[in-house]
Amino acid sequence: MSIRPHRAVVAATALTALLLAGCSGSAERPSSPAAPSAPSTPQASDPAARATALAVTLADEDLVGQVLMPYAYGNAATEVSAGSAAGNQGLAGVDTPAEMIAKYRLGGLILVGFSADDPTQGNQETTNVDSADQVRKLTTGLRDAAAGLPTGAAPFLIGTDQEYGVVTRITDRVTALPSALAAGAAGDPALTEAAWRAAGSELAALGINLDFAPVADVLATRSTVIGSRSFGADQERVSPQVGAAVRGLQSAGVAATLKHFPGHGHSADDSHKELPVLTQPRAKLEAEAWPPFKAGIDAGTMAVMSAHLDARSVDPGTPATFSHKLLTDVLRGQLGFQGVVITDGMNMAPAKRWSPGEAAVRALNAGNDLILMTPNVGQAYDGLLAALRDGSLPRARLLDAVTRVLTMKFRLAGTAAPDMSTLDDPAHRAAADALAAAAVTVLRGSCGTTPVTGPVTVTSSDGRDHTRALLTDALKAAGVRVVPEGGTVVHLVGYGDGTGDLRADAAVTVAMDTPYVLAKATSPTLLATYSSSRAAMNGLAAVLAGKARPGGRSPVKVTGLPATTCDS
């Protein structure tokens, strides 16, 4: 492929701007130019310089491919079932994920999947996840497929939504952290950072270098799509948690992604199904929704995800994903973010008001750098290429986006993937246990005495046999006798449960997701773990057995119940 003659000029201009602004998330700028050095030195050591040097060599087709990060069907790179091949044909006109990477010169791929309680399952049209070993084999195959591309010197991006709690794509053999809301209840950023460092190490071992987490949304509404994915309702408590999660993930060589800008928790509607409207004045968004994003940016996050939200006080009628005012003026200008902006799934309803090609062009022009989960890869690719050549997508904007993406890739290049033996490491489990134990909260009842006496019967709403078993085992290990029926009832309620799932005869009711349902519970003791993981059940068992004091503080207000803590 021939190289356009004016690319070098554009790339040189982009390099100057990027080196002055930086791509690390820092808003600081050097006071004077760096001392001259040999051309090979910055290219060898500086990710931004390496990225710009590579970008200037790329053909139009390579530039377009680098800003696409679709999903694919199948659990292997080169061999898929007939059904997965048919899915890939409809999505991209190829049979396998490896062929998709080669044909469209992709910058990355997202691994998808969902569980029964996942509020995001509406746009998860397939799954790439069966087991830990399968994921590692898949990611190795995807990287092999990308190695021969002109961008092969930069690591291929493989991302997933590993938030922990209700949105957890990979569960086999990985350490299950408690939810973000649990971390918010614990209120200790050091515990959060340690837990997310463990999580990052395990993702890196699986071959994943980009996590679409943490959620930086403040839970200002009773949003069920955000819910326990948020660290809480108080931006002053949420902000340090977001920064801690970013530092933990990225210290393990996995890029963090703040989401969903400008703040999905400020609407109770679900952007998978409709375009939520943020009715708050801009001053309120600045004061309440944006501080956690700024905290994550200050912590050095490599990426931010734009949301399909209509912020009426900033750019009325325009989803943030397509808003130059929000992504360029606010996110980059006001908040100082200089890293990679990634769209939320473009196969979600608000993004499908335009064709895949037009939507991709609009998203790039607004300030996004990566197009995530387009509903048709070929149409998005062709639309971007046509817009580049007719000028409706300025070459400088595309080159800027590609340079940012490549810079992030080169920043990730220096960290070797840990061995698979790091999965579910005892030290990682200890970090998760410490965070989960600190999260257990009393919303009604005594802090200083054992809430259960005599034999215990663990109950729950239907379909939670696994969680009941986890708590039963943990109680037995703590020395509590557990009987199938007739004992002191400890009742568990989780994601999606309502007042109809409560039990009037329960001595203890435990909320394992958002604790709002406890407002209607009549039990003399009300506890919250905000999560149903093994670590959460271990922490709960220690409290029920009288071996630990519940020191958490509810990160959200529950009607009629005080947001107190046993340590206050």
Describe the 3D structure.
The structure is a single chain. With 568 residues, the protein is an alpha/beta fold. It has 2 domains: 58-422, Alpha-Beta Barrel (TIM Barrel), CATH 3.20.20.300; 440-544, Rossmann fold, CATH 3.40.50. It is built from 19 helices and 17 strands. The chain has helices at residues 7-21, 40-45, 47-55, 60-66, 82-92, 97-104, 132-146, 180-186, 189-205, 235-251, 282-289, 291-298, 324-334, 356-366, 377-390, 395-412, 426-439, 465-477, 534-544; strands at 68-69, 108-111, 157-160, 162-164, 167-168, 210-211, 257-261, 277-278, 303-306, 310-311, 340-343, 371-372, 441-444, 456-460, 488-493, 508-511, 525-528. Strands 13-17-16-15-14 form a 5-stranded mixed beta sheet, with helices on one face. A 3-stranded parallel beta sheet has the order 2-3-6, with no helix packed on it. Helix 18 links the parallel strand 14 and strand 15. Helix 9 runs antiparallel to helix 17 (426-439) and helix 17 (426-439) crosses helix 19. The longest helix has 18 residues, at 395-412. The chain is globular and about 75 Å long.
